[in-house]
Design a protein that fits this description.
single chain; 308 residues; Rossmann fold; 6-stranded mixed sheet; 33% helix; 21% strand; globular; RNA-binding; GTP-bd; GTP-binding; GTPase_Era-like; ribosomal small subunit binding
């Protein structure tokens, strides 16, 4: 599960370390950017909004710095209890931050879209008291002559420490972004070993990968009503993992099982392959489905899932 890390050239500068919280609306590429900075997959990624539910920490270590990156749920106008808690988790991460990376998708920003988003972004940004770097994601999807006007407009929203165009998917501009973030960190020690990419447990990563496959393979709203609980995780080769997928309705259980159990088998096979790649050993994955009526509004269950 270890891979090469991003690094800046060594220098005589003092060692810097600290926490950077990644904030942004749903589906702007926060998890993709985290994975790109780590140069390996830690956070799950799907085309659906609000995939990330919990705060996930990625660790980027260079010769004279260590950044603890907090990937957070997307900021949005939440109605359901689970969504309100997701937004609360994102905003609570600001308390730990030395700096903030605010990510937006600039590929959808025509003039009218920018104006409509101005008040929303201003509302989020006014809650931030730490230095903020604005990253304009998906800059490779717009004509370059449109980029400078967008950057100029963004600077009217907030006194950003810097505005950096990037492509989280291809990695374009990510080295520049990393360098800007390092300059905002205080002098400090190396908190984690240089070969550790995350503080997340293998159990957590396994549960997230299973949930990712549900998002990718199941249509409509069913994935938003699912949660994954790891019942047991036996170390070894193969690792034996038993997990329960929780849903709210019997009808949702039927969709996940599929005709003659084919959908559940597909989820299991796809998830097991990815988990094995992350763990770097064979995996035997066993899945069950449990109906827990209206669990997304149940405070006790949400607390058990870490959505506090």
């Amino acid at each position: 599960m270890i891979s090469e890390k991003n690094s800046l050239s060594a220098s005589s500068a003092p060692y810097r370390s600290g926490v950077v919280t990644i904030l942004g609306a749903p589906n702007v590429g926060k998890s993709t950017l985290l994975n790109q900075l780590l140069q390996q997959k830690i956070a799950i990624v799907t085309p659906k909004a609000q995939t990330t539910r919990n705060r996930i920490m990625g660790i980027v270590t260079g010769p004279d710095f260590q950044i603890l990156l907090l990937d957070t749920p997307g900021l949005h106008a939440a109605k359901e209890e689970i969504n309100r808690r997701m937004v609360k988790i994102a905003l609570a991460s600001l308390a730990d931050a030395d700096a903030v990376l605010f990510l937006v998708d600039c590929s959808v920003w025509n003039h009218d879209k920018r104006i409509s988003k101005a008040e929303e972004y201003a509302g989020y940004l006014k809650k931030i008291t730490k230095p903020v770097v604005l990253a304009l994601n998906k800059q490779d999807l717009i004509p370059q002559q449109q980029l400078l006007p967008i950057m100029d407009w963004c600077r009217t929203l907030h006194p950003f420490a810097s505005v950096v165009p990037v492509s989280a998917l291809s990695g374009q501009g990510v080295d520049v972004l990393l360098a800007e973030l390092v300059t905002l960190l205080p002098e400090g020690p190396q908190y984690y070993p240089e070969d550790l990419p995350t503080d997340a447990t293998e159990r957590f990563i396994a549960a997230e990968i299973i949930r990712e496959k549900i998002f990718l393979l199941i249509r409509k709203e069913v994935p938003y009503s699912t949660a994954v609980v790891i019942d047991s995780f036996e170390e070894g080769d193969p690792a034996v993992i038993r997990a329960t997928i929780m849903v709210e309705r019997d009808s949702q259980k039927g969709i996940l099982v599929g005709q003659k159990g084919k959908m559940l088998a597909t989820i299991r096979q796809s998830a097991a392959a990815d988990i094995a790649q992350v763990l770097d050993r064979r995996v035997r994955l066993h899945l069950w489905i449990k109906v827990s009526k209206d669990w997304t509004e149940n405070t006790a269950i949400l607390r058990d899932l870490g959505l506090v």
